[in-house]
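Reopening this one. Same input as before:
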Amino acid sequence: MNHPNPPPQNPDHEQTSPPKFEWDFHVSAVISSPVTGGHISDTLGVIEVNSSGTLFATGGIARKIRIYNFNSLPACQFYIFTPAKLSSLKWKPGSAGKTMGSADYDGVVTEYDLETQMPVFERDEHSGKRVWSMDYSGHDPVVGASGSDDGTIQMWDPRHDGGKCVATVQFGSPVCCVEFSPFGGRLLAVGCADRKAYVYDVRKMVDPISVFVGHKKTVSYTRFLDDRTLMTSGTDGCLKMWDTEDQRLIRTYTGHTNQKRFVGLSVWRNQGLIGCGSESNQVFVYDKRWGEPIWVHGFEPEGGTGTRSEPGFVSSICWSQVGDDECTLVGGGSDGVVKIFSGKRKALTSVN
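Same output, byte for byte:
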């Protein structure tokens, strides 16, 4: 999936100390694309792992939500047909994994009951323009927000005046990402095609409380690493870490290739690891302490076969948030292939 109107710029770089390679990663499972030849029609735009780390969902160009259980891979437990291509999926907090929200290319946000596999809630307030991202509030899971090509974010509460929007913010540029703080606060982060990231207090959406300027192209993803640290990803080929209280840049991360596509961004908050895809068809893992990657894995097609009209790229990524010395990362490619990576902290060695 291409970014909206990314202006050409050169990625910036920052000198950092050499990273320490404290983790071992390996591929633990592969789910091959059901599309013969790995055509672009099954590009995975989003992967989401549930809060307990037992299930994950995928969505994208194929107009299906696929649900997988980590204990029964590579089989798909079930799938739900959707009316449009999918750009975003979120497990609804507090629903015991039974409810999922989605956003699509037709500008619609839909909530699905995963037990009945039927839609139970729908919003269509973005004038038919593609919705890139939606999320639920961790403070109050009934509240949600969405960001769209129409240049707005919409925040809603079904309990409020028939479910009408409780706030609308106009940006004038496509909104690529919205994310509520998962740490119980009332913050909402926004990534925008105007090359900026914003943080709002949802109780007063008139003006942002922070504006982060530093990316040279579209800000495609925002992710809270902790209660005062925000990660952003841009099509200038870099990730950036910001202090939301001091409103300053902490570190820039480079190595992956990202000039025009959504390649995914996810953080494992327990140990400060950052995962992203790349237009070089690789998965990159960074440690928050260093600006260079600590692990890179090629996403070549299994067996080296397949016919494609353009090079492949890693298009989605998501960490499981469970674990401490062991971790799980799920990546999806433009050919529809899903790979599950298992990581383990290396044993400490001593020198006598």
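So the earlier flakiness isn't reproducible anymore. For the record, Residues 68 and 75 are 7 Å apart (CA to CA).
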